[in-house]
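Input for the complex:
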Amino acid sequence: MPVQHNYTIKEGTKSKLLLVYATSAESTSGKTGLANDLASGSAAYIREGDCAARRVPIVPGRVGEWGSGALAEVDPELLPGLYQFGAPDEMLAAGSARAVLLIRFPETVIKPVEIHLVAYDPQDAERIGVWSLAGHKRHEFLRQALPRFTEMELAMGEQTEKELAAKLSAKKGS
Amino acid sequence: MSYTLQKGTRSKILLVYALDATDMRSGKTGLNSRTPDSSAAYIREGEAIVRRTPLVEGKLGEHRAGSFVEVDSKLLSGVYQFGVPDEMLAAGAETVTLILKFPGAVLEPISIHLVAYDPQDSERLGMTALGPEGRINALRGAFPRLTENEFRNAG
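Predicted:
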């Protein structure tokens, strides 16, 4: 049973590991052993708006470790058919909204990996990477929205500064 | 099968579908946690260890880690409930893939995207910046002296 691989990733993400599922072309079972013959496989991707596909050389990988184009079989007994692939950083760089990666091996079905490259950050618990919710941006907005409050704030700042300067000069004098 | 869940979600129940491997059309009924040669295992992105989850009995609508329960063999043949171990969804990884294996059945691997926001929070998507504390901090940060005055007067 070929499985869809859909990801939503912040553009510019680096050292991303993808988990992909391979099945035998003739049956529904997970296909094992692909990492033993990397030379027979190929990988390539296209980013939306690009005029040419880019080939990714497949190299041996280790589970849990990233390497560009590194392919590692996860566990042929417990998770047969599951592989880890190191996504090249250039594939996820800013400048495109979508990338499609194909990993191919003879007599094997691996569904395309579709990656939506987004500006927000699904891994940011504070504000999912929404820039306008950053502290200093909100301060800027509030100060523009409430100009008299801002004037009062600035005036209080000036007053505090004067008081501080007076204290310092008094200390020097004593 | 793909899910998007907040990291740290607990007591999560998944509904999975088992196809009968003999015809690849009908739902496979009669599977349970004691089915010989069955297994459940998962890997979290970036980790080198595959974790096996022992399959156990359970009750429909109730969470128990590793529980595997047939929903209704007549009305929903092939649909099962699986109790996800909390550790599988803990913070520290962005994706996790779970595979349930049963002889004579085909179950699609389950891919889970672990995110920081809360897709189930209609108020603020779990973003702390939009919570009361985040908003108060923004206001106070914009007018620190007025805030100080406010506290002084209140005291």
